[in-house]
Every structure is written in structure tokens, then in C-alpha cells.
Input
Amino acid sequence: MQNILITGGAGFIGSNFIKHVLDNTNCNVVNFDKLTYAGNLENLVDVEFNDRYRFVKGDICDKEDVLKAVKEYGIDTIVNFAAESHVDRSILGAKEFINTNVGGTLTLLEVLKEQGLSKYLQVSTDEVYGSLPEDRPEIKFTEQTPITTNSPYSASKASADLLCNAFRHTFGLPILITRCSNNYGPYQFPEKLIPLMIAKALGGEELPVYGDGKNVRDWLYVDDHCSAILAVLEKSRDGEVYNVGGNNEWYNIDIVKLILKKLGRPESMIKYVKDRPGHDRRYAIDSSKIMNELGWKPAHVFEDGIELTINWYVENENWWKKVMSGEYLKYFEQNYSAKMH
Ligand code: NAD
Ligand code: TYD
Output
């Protein structure tokens, strides 16, 4: 692994991963990103002049774009973060999710096959396993849990995983898959729960909690997801699937209350709003495979990670305020106007 194409590198996890790779390896990195509403090159200002970093504006659905970058930079490894990633947006319209998450993955797999690259890692999600029962805390998602998707987003990610399996099985390609739980940390687009609630609390606005607030998510600090992906790239046999999680389940409402407490704001700012249609009740990951086989473990406990994250948003108000203008506002109106009344 010397020259890595990181797709979706201008997004939340991709930009954190690029910095993680530059800090922890000698590899050269090409950030290949279409710069959709979620892509932001400001996430990478710290590294834009690094000799081992290049940015290429391109679309994973466009084979010519991908081939050009692969040839020009002598790419041997692809890590695919590029995706439409927000469940609520997939409910408002699924087409772009199918185009990018399924069609784009297919394009990358074709390039992998035709160019004989040495490694491909698909960044997938625990959401492909569907929802867990609330009253059976001992049950978690393992790599053997059947794929059961409930949202257009998770259906598109699962379809991509199935394509990866098919290309590995049929053509013997070197394909790896990671399935991680919910990430949080710096540079997360403020449409996702934690940064949205921090931004609302700081801005003195109501905090919209879906349904009864008792949905459960298993939160992992973004840099720990990055170290897991790097461990899989460096140490795994081809063809493996690894779950990645923080063993850190929280009710949404408790996260929201914690954010308010840390920011010194009152709980009266919480507004329970109409639930997300088809809202998965509980996600929880069993990470024992990656821990036992590759020796990975998270470096951050939640109490520290959430503190780091809240402080980052407090100190980088400029970043999220800019992000929240324009296109994002239109989406916000569309998603929440029906829920708030
Ligand atoms: P994000 O929405 O912040 O970033 C996605 C990036 O992909 C953006 O930079 C966007 O411009 C780019 N992109 C979108 N369509 C593209 C295309 N057609 N061609 C090239 N680039 C394109 O997403 P994220 O939260 O950083 O998630 C990254 C990946 O990790 C996704 O595949 C997601 O499914 C997966 N994942 C996310 C989480 C999470 O909690 N955020 C958890 C597990 C897995
Ligand atoms: P989200 O960050 O969208 O991640 P995902 O749906 O992929 O897990 O949402 C996390 C949880 O927070 C999920 O149960 C939905 C809930 N939620 C709210 O209650 N209010 C909100 O405004 C948002 C965006 C999410």
C-alpha cells in the first residue's frame, strides 16, 4: 500500500481519515471527491500543502474520472467513503443514494478489476443489519447478523456491500468491508444528531428530538474509526468483513441532555418532534472480531470524546455556521417543517 485513493475525503470521516493516514503512515493520499453539499475542503486546510496529499475533484459514478486519477497517481489501493450518508435525506429522496452508493461502488469495483489494483476497502455501516430489540441488551450485531435494511440509506449501503461480496466471490478481487456504528467528532456535518444539537444549543434554538428520544445508538469517536480502517488495510486477510464499534450505547435523549448540561443550557430547549418514518430502534455492535484478530481497540472513552467534540464546535463556530447556510437551510426547512407542528 503506497498510493491510496480516498473517495469522499472531503466529508466528515474521510477528512479525518486522510489526516490519520498522513500522520501514521508514509503513504501518498489522493482525495477524490465530488464536493456535494457534504464535501468541504476547509476540513483539510491543515494538510493542503502536504507533499503526500493531492485533491482531485471527481465523481465515483464517472468511470473516466476514476480511471484518470488511478492512472495519473499510480493508485494501488482504494478506500471508498464517498456516499450520500444521511438517513433523513434518503427518506426525502432515494435516487441520489442509489446512484452514488450503489452505482458509484460498482464503478470503483470495475476499475479495481480492470486495473488489477492490490486492495479495495468499502466503508460500510452497521445500519445494514437493521434494528435490534430494546429489551435484549445482550444481543448485538455480529458479522454473521443477516442483512436487513429499513431505510433507503441502509438499503443502498447494503446493496453496495452485496456487490462487493459478488465481485470478491466471482472475480477473486482483494476486497475488504468495515461496518461501523455511529461516529462523532470534529468536522461532522451539522445535520447529524450530535453536531446538530450542539449547533442548536449554541444558537439558542429548539433541539428537535425524534419520537420518544429512546432510540439507541452506539457511538464511536471518529479517530477510532479511522484507526480501525487503517488496521484492517494493514493487517487483514483479503475478503474479510469487520464490525467496528465503541461498546457505547446511549439513548438519544440522554446524549441531548448531556450536550445541554455541558454547554450550560436548560433542558427546556428540547422539543420532541414527529418521529422519523421507519426509525430503527437500536444499534449495537459486537467488535470482538477486529479486537481479537487485529488487536484494534478504541483510544477514546465517550466522556473524553464528547468533551473534545463539544469544545471543537464551540471553538469553530465559523466552520459550522458557514456550512449551515445555503443549500443546507433548504433541506432543514423541508425535513423539519412537517415534523415541528
Ligand atoms: P459525509 O456525508 O460527511 O461525506 C460524504 C463525502 O462523499 C462528501 O465529501 C461528498 O462530497 C462525497 N461524495 C458524495 N457523492 C460523491 C460522488 N458521487 N463522488 C465522489 N464523492 C462523493 O459522510 P461521512 O459521515 O463522512 O461518511 C463517510 C462514509 O462512512 C459513508 O460511506 C458512510 O456510509 C459511512 N459511515 C458513516 C458513519 C457515520 O456515523 N457518519 C458510520 C458508519 C459508516
Ligand atoms: P443520525 O445522526 O441521523 O444518525 P443515524 O440515523 O444514521 O443513526 O441520527 C442519530 C439518532 O438521532 C437517530 O436515532 C435519529 C435521532 N435524531 C433526532 O432525534 N433528531 C434529529 O434532528 C436528528 C438529525 C436525529
The first helix runs from residue 12 to 24.
